[in-house]
Amino acid sequence: MIRKARIEDVKTIHGLLMHREEHEGLVLPRSFSQLYSHLRDFFVVTDNSGAVIGCCALNIIWENLAEIRSLVVLPEHRGKKFGRELVEACLSESVTLGIYRVYTLTEQTGFFAHLGFVKEEMDTLNQKVFADCLNCPRFPDFCNEVAMVMAL
């Protein structure tokens, strides 16, 4: 089941994002402070027992631009369309908010292309570069991420 994240999910979301050996370099870790501050950005997916098994966030960048980020599904639950459902929940919220251009920075280009995202030059996302990329330890020399955009 996909739902908005709740306060009791923060530690689990933190664990998902910090589980380095399973997605080294695929998502940026987030501090507890960042997660509490941006909790309303997150959706989670739960298994039949109610345990959180994945998460994804929609981060508003500007009046006409939002970012899909922090997409993680536990390895044993991948291939069951949970990642797709999380991204679709974020896209739906973007439309509800009146934001019709969404992007992601990813190394998983095939996954996002299958959802309808298309590659775009990083230069077109100036707001992102100034917001997060400058503070990333992988920027600029070790970043392998590709910008992908979807017009809704």
From TrEMBL:
EC top class, as a word: transferase
* Listed NCBIfam families: PRK07757.1
Q: Which CDD domains match?
A: NAT_SF
Q: Name one GO biological process term.
A: L-arginine biosynthetic process
In Swiss-Prot or TrEMBL terms, this protein is called Putative enzyme
> InterPro entries annotated for this entry?
Acyl_CoA_acyltransferase (IPR016181), GNAT_dom (IPR000182), NH2A_AcTrfase (IPR010167)
GO CC term, one of those recorded: cytoplasm
Q: Organism, per UniProt?
A: Pseudodesulfovibrio piezophilus (strain DSM 21447 / JCM 15486 / C1TLV30)
Q: Which GO terms describe its molecular function?
A: L-glutamate N-acetyltransferase activity
**Residues of the N-acetyltransferase domain:** 1-152
Q: Which domain of life is it from?
A: Bacteria
Q: Give any Pfam family that matches.
A: Acetyltransf_1
Q: What is its EC number?
A: 2.3.1.-
Listed PANTHER family: AMINO-ACID ACETYLTRANSFERASE (PTHR30602), AMINO-ACID ACETYLTRANSFERASE NAGS1, CHLOROPLASTIC-RELATED (PTHR30602:SF12)
- Keyword line: Acyltransferase, Transferase
